[in-house]
Amino acid sequence: MGRKIILFQCLILVASFHLTSLSSQGFAQQPVYKAETGFHLDWWDSPNREKGLQYYLPMKLQVEYGNFEAGVLTGWCYTSYDPVGDDRRSMADLLDTKLNFGYALLDKLPFDLMFGLDFNLPTGRTKLSDEDLYLMMDPDLVSITSFGEGFNVNPTISLSKEWGDWMLGVGLGYIYRGEYDYGHSFHDYDPGDIYTITTQIMYFFQESWRFRAFTNFSIYETDELDNDDFYEEGDYFQWGLAAMYYRPEYDVELSVQNVLRGKSEFSETGTGHISKEADNSHGDEWITSLKANYRPNDLTAFKFFVTYLYIDENDYPESSIYYIGKREKISFGASVVKMIIPHLSGELGAKGFFMQDDETWAHPDSKQSYRGFSIEIKLVSTF
């Protein structure tokens, strides 16, 4: 059973759209309830005195019973941004609410199945003012990059098959994304739906080694604005390799990922139609990550990671306003998980990063560097 849970977790993680996760200890035979909250802070700045600050309070409730689980996740977020030569902008509000459901069908068929059904309820902030739009910062700088969307529905199905030391998993997902008012100047925004297929193959070697290869392919439908075609994101393809060495008291994993994006389609002014861009505005991405966990006893665990991100320059010439140069980012962090009292555990973590950008449309005349850190406190109660 443990191997099956590991594979389903990896399929969910690679797909990134399905937000539930199965217990790594197996499925609960009696109802298990979990309540989770905490505090997360992101801060960054740049040499030209540009600054950003964000903190949020997540709230999650979850129940696991047999092969079924359900959860609700929401939160409150404060974000501020200090641009160069202008006044600070800030906003505080609730975020959207996620409802997640999952059911696993194990040992009943020649393969195992997991069904997922997730909903996004629009309880967050939409219809942003022009000033509020500046608060939607780069995802490499802050954690929350969307303060609210429409009503979304995300059904998924994943299957796995085990042959000795080998396991194969395939996941299919679809996201229906509902219409909402993106900003005061962007009414009736209808984001296109998304179709996703993920694959994962795992090999278990001598009980201590786990090797895996994974892919994620997504197709985006056309975004519409006031019933006119507005934008279509290019196809998304991700592949990766990972190796983990596992012992009861510690484990170490090294992974390498590559993300490739196709050409996008943009609106032709005044026509209500879109056309494919001349060159690809997306650069290829490479992500290398080293993670380690150390468990000195049953009540304590330490986590460490270091990640290197490289995004190549896009295909536009440097003279073009659409040119985006390369990006390099290194992130590192550590956390400790501790059982405080029976049925209550806590986690305290911190991470930092340094990032270097070449010229882009936002700063066309010079390179730009960033630095930042995050602090997270998490409390999880099981009853």
Question: What is this structure, in a nutshell?
Answer:
Helices cover 4% and strands 60% of the residues. It is mainly beta and 383 residues long.
Explained architecture:
Mean pLDDT is 91; it is low at 12-25. This protein has 383 residues and is mainly β. A 16-stranded antiparallel barrel has the order 1-2-3-5-6-7-8-10-11-14-15-18-19-20-21-22. A five-stranded antiparallel β-sheet has the order 9-12-13-16-17, with no helix packed on it. The chain is globular, with a radius of gyration of 22 Å. It contains one helix and 22 strands. It has one helix spanning 2-15, and strands at residues 32-45, 51-65, 68-82, 89-94, 97-105, 112-121, 152-163, 166-177, 189-190, 194-205, 209-220, 223-225, 228-232, 236-247, 250-261, 265-268, 273-276, 285-297, 300-311, 327-341, 344-357, 368-382. It has a single domain, classed as Beta Barrel (Porin). Helix content is 4%, strand content 60%. The longest helix has 14 residues, at 2-15.
Question: How many H/I helices?
Answer: 1
Q: CATH architecture, please?
A: Beta Barrel
Mean pLDDT: 91
State which percent range the strand residues make up: over 45%
Main sheet specs: 16 strands, antiparallel, barrel
Q: Could you give the order of the helices and strands? A: HEEEEEEEEEEEEEEEEEEEEEE
Determine the N-to-C terminus distance: 23 Å
Total beta strands: 22
Report the helical percentage: under 10%
Major sheet: arrangement of strands:
1-2-3-5-6-7-8-10-11-14-15-18-19-20-21-22
The best one-word shape is globular
Tally of separate domains: 1
